[in-house]
Q: What sequence folds into this?
């Protein structure tokens, strides 16, 4: 039986006025005083709803526990979307009015030690359970306070799982294993929600157990099945504006921790300069992810990120050409299926700038198609390039 919002509000208001905890005994008394049914199931349902509001994710709590949900989006009052792997779908879920959504957003931010109010109207944090939480308060956001939750996977995917799901053809798995064994430096590229982190996690799980992985992330998401993993996580400034630890700080620290493979979960800022520098000074096999619409856009994307650190175009391309060997690009089909579309190698244009050359295409029928860069890719795998 579902408790009506009006009844729940009356119980909440009474308990708040009395300063009482939502214990079963007290809730039953309030229900009787309001002329409601005070049976055991109703009492327990009200108690659970009030405790979720006070401590958990409120009406979103049930969604966070569903194993297939990767994203939860709240667009103001009672407008909720989820992604179960096939794209966004709107669901029927009562979140309460704007004040209730705003209160929920502030509580989730507070659980991660951050403030969310009119003076600081947006936040991007990782919740204690690993969920990535972002919120923007109304009226900056319309139609109301907007919440975005990226739920960490509860299932550790392996390469065989991606093959079964159709994300990688069986022959493609051998290509990826060879790339890892050759210790090529690579980036996994793609748009939002294409599965970049999932693929990188799978690949890192295949790295030889004798190697030490040092992961640098803005928000900890990678969980490779590997016995020797060190994780470094960036930290935003506190409410006084101090205490920030940037990705660039952590990449520099990681280089002093004897990594066999330096991994940057997502290359998104000035840390690209330190990563490329590291890959140019003996740190083989480094990798990470980057947002890009296509593999051919990766050099341009890195060029823009390098500019944030004051590195000019020619210097960035010179570093990139010698530091990075391959790009693995992911796409998401209209039906929501995520898959690898191609592997490219890094080359140079006649002007000396870095470019990407298609080496292997993963075509829709599950076959592989060799492209112009295949010979160079073969040489890189053999250590001859």
A:
């Amino acid at each position: 039986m579902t408790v009506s919002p009006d009844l729940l509000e009356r119980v909440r208001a009474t308990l708040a006025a009395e300063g009482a905890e939502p214990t079963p005994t007290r809730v039953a008394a309030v229900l009787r005083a309001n002329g409601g049914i005070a049976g055991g199931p109703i009492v327990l349902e009200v108690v659970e709803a009030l405790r979720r509001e006070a401590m958990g994710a409120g009406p979103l709590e049930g969604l966070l526990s569903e194993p297939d949900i990767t994203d939860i989006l709240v667009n103001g009052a009672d407008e909720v979307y989820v992604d179960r792997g096939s794209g966004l779908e709107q669901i029927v879920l009562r979140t309460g009015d704007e004040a209730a959504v705003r209160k929920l957003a502030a509580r989730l931010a507070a659980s991660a030690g951050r403030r969310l109010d009119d003076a600081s109207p947006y936040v991007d944090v990782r919740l204690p359970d690993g969920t990535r939480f972002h919120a923007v308060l109304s009226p900056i956001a319309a139609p109301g306070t907007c919440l975005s939750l990226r739920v960490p996977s509860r299932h550790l995917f392996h390469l065989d799982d991606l093959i079964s799901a159709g994300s990688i053809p069986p022959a493609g798995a051998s290509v990826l294993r060879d790339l890892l064994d050759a210790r090529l430096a690579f980036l996994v590229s793609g748009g939002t929600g294409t599965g970049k982190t999932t693929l990188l996690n799978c690949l890192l799980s295949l790295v030889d157990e004798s190697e030490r992985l040092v992961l640098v992330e803005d928000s900890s998401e990678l969980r490779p099945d590997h016995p020797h993993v060190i994780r470094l996580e960036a930290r935003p400034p506190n409410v006084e504006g101090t205490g920030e630890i940037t990705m660039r700080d952590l990449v520099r620290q990681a280089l002093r921790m004897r990594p066999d493979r330096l991994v940057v979960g997502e290359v998104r800022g000035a840390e690209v300069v330190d990563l490329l520098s590291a890959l140019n000074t003996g740190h083989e096999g480094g990798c990470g992810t980057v947002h890009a619409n296509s593999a051919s856009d990766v050099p341009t994307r890195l060029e823009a990120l390098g500019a944030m650190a004051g590195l000019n175009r020619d210097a960035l391309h010179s570093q990139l050409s010698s530091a990075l060997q391959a790009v693995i690009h992911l796409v998401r089909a209209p039906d929501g299926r995520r898959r690898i579309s191609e592997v490219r190698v890094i080359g140079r244009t006649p002007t000396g700038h870095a470019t990407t050359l298609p080496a292997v295409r993963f075509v829709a029928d599950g076959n592989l198609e060799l492209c112009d860069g295949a010979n160079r890719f073969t040489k890189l795998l053999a250590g001859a390039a």
The domain at 59-153 is CATH 3.30.450.370 (Beta-Lactamase). The mean pLDDT is 87. The first strand starts at residue 71 and ends at 75.
